[in-house]
Amino acid sequence: MPEPRPAVPISEVVDQLHALGVEPGHVLLVHTSFRTVGPVEGGPAGLIQALGHAVGPQGTLVMPSWTGDNDRPFEPGATPAAPDLGVLADTFWRLPSVRRGTHPFAFAARGPAAAAIVSDPLILPPHQMASPVGRVLEHDGRILLLGVDHDANTTLHLAELLAGVPYRNPMHITVLRGGRPVRMDYLENDHCCQRFTLAGGWLKRLDQQKDGTVGHGAATLTRSRDVVDLAVGHLTRDPFTFLHPRGSECQECALAWRSVPG
After folding, report:
1. 48 touches 88 (CB < 8 A)
2. Are the CB atoms for 118 and 108 separated by under 8 Å?
3. Is 45 helix (H, G, I), strand (E, B) or coil?
4. What is the pLDDT of residues 73-115, one digit of tens each?
5. DSSP conformational letter for 131
6. CA atoms lying within 13 Å on the CB side of residue 63
């Protein structure tokens, strides 16, 4: 059995974040696999504390906080974050002073810009400019990937919508109306997201991505605007950049291909 990894002190995590380029005052959208980054002193709450120290009192932390259950109404004060978002995201929204969105595609945020980022009403498809990822972009935010790659980078769905990609898969959510659950069907630019990892190469070639280590895991810091601008450029030239080729074994991308008109 390998020796267990030592817990990285919070102060060291703060130093690692600063070395990566996180600065006081940043609006920081964080996607995390705590299993990869940890252990950290204090567990998930300790890592959140380190992130808070890194951006300082004038900075704002943002994390995804949507539900993984499309068949039950979302309750902001009770519904857990989707399991694939990880323990850090599910810990964050429960903390005092954290604001959480009020609909199934919620994000959670803490800091001066929190209300502006998470207070928009439900829009479908969900990742438009009037959504948390769009508001982070408007605040010149940064995207921090901890122990995950760009396939976890939701901002790339915003780029797809801005570029006008033609694929839309049928999806549904459940909301409360008049105290009763109501199913809402809609079309979303959804697929497996594996090819979102192409964005890392684009950003590196232009020196628009910083890579390093935070805790025990690989970490990446990028500017939201750079991610969107590069992705929109590629999608304008080829709107199917992020789909596996037609005829591949990826069922999610196959659904997206079948939705394309004509």
Report:
1. yes
2. yes
3. helix
4. 999 999 999 999 999 999 999 999 999 999 999 999 999 999 9
5. S
6. 30
